[in-house]
Amino acid sequence: MREERLHVMFGMWDLADPYNQHIGVTITSLVMNCSLPVTVHLLYDENLHKDSPGYRDNQEKYRQLEEQFGVKIFYHHIVLPNYVLHTRGGLGYFSPGWPPSAFFRIFSPDLLVDLDWIIYLDGDIVVNTDLAEIWKRRLVGEEFAVACCRDHGPEYWKNSRLRYCKKVGIPTEGYFNSGVLLMNLRKIRDDYTIVESTKEILMNHPDLPLPDQDILNIIFANDILFLPEKYNLPAGLDQGDCYKSSCVHYIFCEKPWRDIDYPAAKEYWKYLSLSPWGDTFEKIYSTIQLMTYRAPLDKRVLTGSILNLRTFLSNLLRRGWNDVRGVKKLRW
Prior knowledge:
The chain has helices at 20-33, 53-69, 82-85, 104-111, 132-135, 153-156, 159-168, 185-191, 194-204, 211-219, 265-273, 281-294, 297-303, 309-319, 321-324, and strands spanning 6-11, 38-44, 72-77, 117-121, 125-127, 146-150, 176-184, 224-226, 233-234, 247-249.
């Protein structure tokens, strides 16, 4: 009998990019909490920095993930059309333009032709629950294009954003976050022309604030199954201990690898220390150093991280390496 495996997809624009570390953390957390064996599909542009040390180093770490956790990783080369590459969306606090990898999920039905279903995850997520539970939703006979969680954004949108949504046809009722998606690839291939629809939307509305997410909401507005909030729980909102049994999504600008006291940061650091990107002190040191350099001045002073990095690291070691590896809670 063919082994049942959970298939999950990530969009990684460049295998040389340091962001691969965060995807590695997401994969580590996923496989450590999943009751099914996992197959990972990495969508990327293989032409970028292919001969660089970072490219080869990340590939080696993904190989170590396979060996350590029994996960299977497949690489899928993708080239995006120019109308996507030239898209310039943007909320004020994002850099101009949009990460091209954000659009990979839109092109996945035609790229992953051997798969009928897949789970898509953003790379700024820690999975503290068993995703096999939502993977089984594909067996219940319900017809839906995507299963997803409601987005908290509409609760906080300004009137200008709401007026814009009405103007271009972005639904505000039932608006979903696209960071965690169970995608019915077969239905999408059969019932939608998602690539053509994306091109038309971008041509008519090149200034979409959240282009990839807005597009998916426009296309699938009436073909959604909503999942419990725990499968896409925003960090940064006061969620108490719910982080321990959910998919923690670091949706805001600050991230746990940038902000010393970011909500649920310990969840990220725990799985980083268990992944090939942080399983030795030498590896995790560079992330700690980068984080302290990025910290706001008041936090640098409070932690002594920049003014006295040696003291900061000594204190970290004094707490014990087991704290960082998740035996105890990590406290900054």
